[in-house]
Amino acid sequence: MTKGMRVEPSEANNKTEQPQTAVKPEAAKAEPSKPSPATSRKSAGNGGGGRGVSWLALLVAAAALGLSGWQWQQARQQQQAQLALLEQQSSQFDSASARLDQRLEGVPQGRDWDAAQRLIAEMQRGQQALVERLNVLQGDGREEWKLAEAQYLLRLASLRLLAVQDVTAARELLETVDGILKSMPDSGLYGVREQLARYQTELESLPELDRAGVFLRLGALRDQVETLAALPVPEFDPDEVSTEEEYADRLQRRDRWDRVLMRLERYVRVDFQRGKVITPLLDDAELQRVRRTLQLTLEQAQWAALRGEEQVYQASLTQAEKLLTQYFELENPKVQAMQTQLQALHERAVSLSPPDLAPLQQSLANYLQSRKTPQVEEPADE
After folding, report:
1. Which of 32, 89, 228, 263 is 20 to 30 A from 18, comparing alpha carbons?
2. Residue 110 — left, alpha, or beta (φ > 0 → left; ψ -120 to 50 → alpha)?
3. Signal peptide: which range, if any (predicted)?
4. How far is residue 147's CA from residue 315's CA, in Å, rounded to a whole number?
């Protein structure tokens, strides 16, 4: 059965009841006498069957009515739940609408909206200009750091040249400075790089000094002085005839003319080895003093090499060669080796005249100052 339908009494039940009611008056009119037992039993059976059908129909109608009532109750509960949900959604919509109205109250309208758009556009342009300026400043900052590094390296190269005359280190520093300036595409650095190239060419022509090597070489020669062989010292034999005794003996054996010649020899002397250095004979104490003097001379040459005193260095080497030649055996291999090394050290330079890098430093400083000074823009011609 469908929802909400009501059960009406069926037409069959009405039809069963209508013949009964119709038959009774006709039977009464036709035969007023008592009915037969068979007829009475038949009518009683018909009346009992009709009442059972009526009760069955009534039960079906009651069940249908109860079912329809239960369905109506379920539908009502669903409608109430949907109604509550709709009321809740309506309240949410009202609150959202109220919040939206509050937000819309601060929104400019008309001319205010146009003014706000223009203000936003101006703010965006200003922000873009600030970003571009920041990028420029960051780029300038990096270039300033590079130029400051180049200036410091130039100062360090000048210090190395003037203090210790280290040509190799100065060359490397100037090459680094040239690389820094090369990485900056600025036409204002052309003059600085040109001046730098001249100084690099000048440094290439200077000899490389090895003062530490000269100092160590002289120290090794000083330690070998104790092993050098000195000139042989003659040993006198007491049994040997002296020069005076030999002269007296010769004088006795000669005749008168020979004696006259011998006497004249004491006043006149013919020297066939004139110009030859006569080396005095030294004892052990004097020989030790000579060795010590040679060692001090070599030490003086050492300190002169470290300080870059070229004249003192060359004079000390010359004095050492004189002592070696005058008091030591030149045919000895050690003496010859030391003499050869002293002559080689004469050719080693311990000082030079380095170029002054002050003009180059001043040129770079002027360029840095020109970058920091703002350029005055000329007024445009109307």
Report:
1. 32
2. left
3. none
4. 46
pLDDT at site 175: 92
- Identify the three-state secondary structure at position 88: helix
CA distances for 264 relative to 242, 267, 356, 367, angstroms:
20, 5, 72, 91
Question: What's the Cα-to-Cα distance from 136 to each of 148, 180, 250, rounded to whole Å?
Answer: 18, 19, 112
SS3 call for 146 = helix
Spatial neighbors of 363 by CB under 8 A, at least 6 apart, are 191, 192, 195
Q: What is the DSSP string of 308-323?
A: T-HHHHHHHHHHHHHH
Q: Do 173 and 156 meet the contact criterion of CB atoms below 8 Å apart?
A: yes
| Least trusted range by pLDDT, from 82-91, 219-228, 260-269 | 260-269
Closest CA to 346 of 378, 320, 367: 320
Q: Identify the band that residue 250 occupies on the pLDDT scale cut at 50, 70 and 90.
A: low
> What is d(CA 47, CA 40) in angstroms, rounded to the nearest whole number?
11
Q: Output the DSSP codes for 345-382.
A: HHTS-----PPP-HHHHHHHHHHHHHHHSPPPPPPPP-
Report d(CA 177, CA 198) in Å as an integer: 14
Residue showing tokens 């929802």: 3
36 φ/ψ angles, rounded to the nearest 5 degrees? -75, 160
Task: Report the C-alpha gap between 177 and 195 in whole angstroms.
Answer: 12
How far is 30 from 96, CA to CA, in rounded Å? Answer: 88
Tens-digit pLDDT profile for residues 201-239: 988 888 878 888 889 999 999 998 888 877 665 554 455
What does the pLDDT look like over 152-170, one tens digit per residue?
999 999 888 888 788 888 8
Angle, nearest 10°, between helix axes 310-327 and 333-346? Answer: 160
Integer CA distances (angstroms), 31 to 35, 42, 284, in order: 8, 17, 200
Between CA 208 and CA 168 the distance in angstroms is: 7
Q: For the chain, what percent of residues have pLDDT higher than 70?
A: 67
Task: Measure the CA–CA gap between 236 and 231, rounded to whole angstroms.
Answer: 16
At residue 153, the pLDDT reads 92
With tokens 């180059």, the residue in question is 360
